[in-house]
């Protein structure tokens, strides 16, 4: 088992080392009719003739040349698309003088493309309220905000703004072993001890692997001041000061059909503009019986 875990960890670190961040906001999804916004990395924008073209469903929406007053931002109002659709688009960047071209995919979600029908998600938080509650309700997500883990009575749990105390860790071990699925978001605190867990797999999820697993998941969404770091030697997951090399990655622990995932981001903060949390929840709930 230890050899398998070490192999997976080595693969995860290898993936992270290979990635080169072209954009400050990489492949992601937008709600139907939303504003398209991309900010280019300062190191990437060196050409004086950097042209861009926005393509949706193989048709050109807009095109132009990046100007100094744009401050590395490319913005355009996206159209409304058919209800329930999932439309692929691309941002194309071209510079003749630098002999450079780059294509970055994005996805446009039609209304009702994300929908929840019967499953309920519990949100464990020390805070009195959740940002963007209207967006959660608009997609039909049934949820209950609680401040004590003993009140949790479904298979799905989100931890936000909470301290990882010993009793909670004991509860999470039992919860996940019974098939429960947990998301631990940024702004939580404390230390997570998995030394007594019977784990099948530990994964360090790179931006590339997350984008492959969930089309359009925004891996740089609202990074927090601290990020989760795996201490495999002591079987701990700790909060450490964030940096650009690690803050966008996630850690996933699997035990049987259950799992717990640590995100170094607060996916609630811009939920009204960024559907990443909804996409992950939809995948998590749809895969509950697999």
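Sequence proposed for the structure above (290 residues):
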């Amino acid at each position: 088992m230890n050899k398998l875990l070490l192999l997976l960890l080595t693969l995860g670190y290898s993936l992270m080392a290979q990635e080169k961040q072209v954009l400050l906001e990489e492949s992601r999804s937008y709600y139907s009719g939303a504003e398209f916004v991309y900010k280019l990395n300062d190191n990437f924008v060196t050409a004086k003739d950097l042209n861009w073209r926005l393509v949706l469903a193989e048709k050109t929406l807009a095109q132009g040349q990046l100007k100094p007053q744009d401050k590395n931002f490319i913005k355009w109002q996206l159209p409304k698309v058919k209800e329930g659709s999932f439309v692929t688009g691309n941002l194309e960047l071209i510079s003749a003088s630098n002999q450079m071209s780059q294509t970055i995919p994005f996805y446009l979600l039609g209304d009702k493309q994300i929908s929840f029908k019967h499953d309920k998600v519990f949100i464990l938080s020390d805070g009195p309220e959740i940002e963007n509650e209207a967006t959660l309700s608009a997609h039909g997500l049934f949820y209950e905000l609680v401040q004590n883990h003993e009140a949790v009575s479904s298979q799905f749990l989100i931890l936000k703004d909470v301290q990882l105390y010993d009793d909670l860790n004991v509860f999470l071990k039992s919860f996940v072993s019974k098939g429960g699925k947990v998301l631990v978001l940024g702004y939580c605190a404390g230390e997570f001890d998995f030394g007594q867990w019977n784990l099948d797999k530990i994964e360090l999820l790179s931006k590339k692997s997350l984008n492959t697993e969930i089309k359009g998941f925004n891996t740089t969404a609202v990074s927090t001041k601290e990020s989760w770091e795996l201490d495999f030697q002591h079987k701990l997951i700790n909060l450490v000061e964030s940096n650009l090399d690690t803050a966008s990655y996630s850690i996933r622990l699997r035990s049987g059909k259950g799992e717990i995932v640590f995100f170094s981001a607060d996916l609630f903060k811009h939920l009204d503009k960024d559907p990443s949390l909804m996409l992950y929840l939809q995948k998590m709930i749809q895969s509950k019986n697999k």
